[in-house]
Amino acid sequence: MLNFTFKNQTEILFGKGQISEISSRLPQNAKVLLLYGGGSIKKNGVYDQAMTALADVEVIEFGGVEPNPTYETLMQAVTSAKDNGVNFILAVGGGSVIDGAKFVAAAYNFAGDPWDILVNEAEFSDPLPIGVVLTLPATGSESNGNSVVTKKETAQKRAFSSETVQPQFAVLDPEYTYSLPEKQISNGVVDAFVHVIEQYLTYPVNAPLQDRFAEGILQTLIVEGPKALAEPENYDVRANVMWSATMALNGLIGKGVPQDWSTHMIGHELTALYNLDHAQTLAIVLPALMYVQKEQKAEKIVQLGERVFGLSLADQAEQIDKTIKAVQDFFESMAVKTRLADYDLGEQAIVEVMANLEKNGLTALGEHGDIDLAKVKEILALAR
Length: 384
Ligand code: NZQ
Ligand code: ZN
Hints:
6-stranded parallel beta sheet; binds 5,6-dihydroxy-NADP; 2 domains; Rossmann fold; globular; alpha/beta; binds zinc ion
């Protein structure tokens, strides 16, 4: 096992009605920036519940954070936060709103252009504290320090990570997810599944506990994900999906083990260029990437097949192929398409993704740093 440090500062408030707890978690004299997305919270009652919970607190609203949040919109939120002198951000929404809150928090006391935080790892100090009301289980952003922001002007989707912007608390009420469109349920399950894979499907380092954690989350998602589509108002199913997505990327399962993240890096370029949903890009890239990297990942692919999909073929090559097929079939069964052509993309997209990866200096991806542009081309060609 590799050395590691582990701390997760986010207090999880899980279950029905937990939103009533939030005012007791705010600083004294709180002046809250309520950050939200395109308005789903106004239709499903979450906005009203948040305002009730904040009845005695001064609230400044900023809505309109888009899926794959943009620098352009978030800079307007920074201006509003500064003009109103807020001292806390409450993000109510999915990963995009939460990631947006982290960027606004970091930019609040930053002297230069905050885009530098994303492209030049510029240091920032005194970020605003953040709380979360989660409405879409997927990214794990509610209890990690990661933020992904897109600059429309240059079609760049970049990430930064700091525990100083990790939420202090996160309300996880499964009932808030009942109003999700089917497509977002599917996206969330696929995203969480791939988060586990990126931390699991590398090479063995004799870390059986991390492996079992990861396999437990994958199995839960495989069983509960399709149920969430079939029985949209089943509370227990929603609760299990929600908790799985949080556990997939709150730091725990990746401690002491090698990590990959190349599927995400390649996928981010597909979103930046063609505005595909985050999970759609992962469903395209992962099966092809597993195939191209099947020698480097052989032992873990065999284990994934055995322990998660119940495959035990005597022939290793066949076990690997069937496991990759099982992953692809799972995505398709969640109604997330797995080929570039399904999204009307072809040869030109491959060229443009490679150019963007090069522009962003992402030319040695994967747990061995061996996924170069030539391999990306091979992966995307296979995913056509
Ligand atoms: O904007 P509103 O109107 O709220 O609608 C949203 C949005 O259109 C809707 N939605 C959310 N909760 C709903 C709901 N609709 C009805 N009922 C509800 N309860 O869903 C749509 C998508 O929301 P979004 O927040 O964009 O989805 P998601 O949570 O999948 O977040 C995706 C973003 O997170 C980043 C992705 O790159 C992408 O930008 N990621 C962040 C990570 C992190 N911070 O650790 C890791 C991930 O790998 C990922 O990269
Ligand atoms: Zn993801």
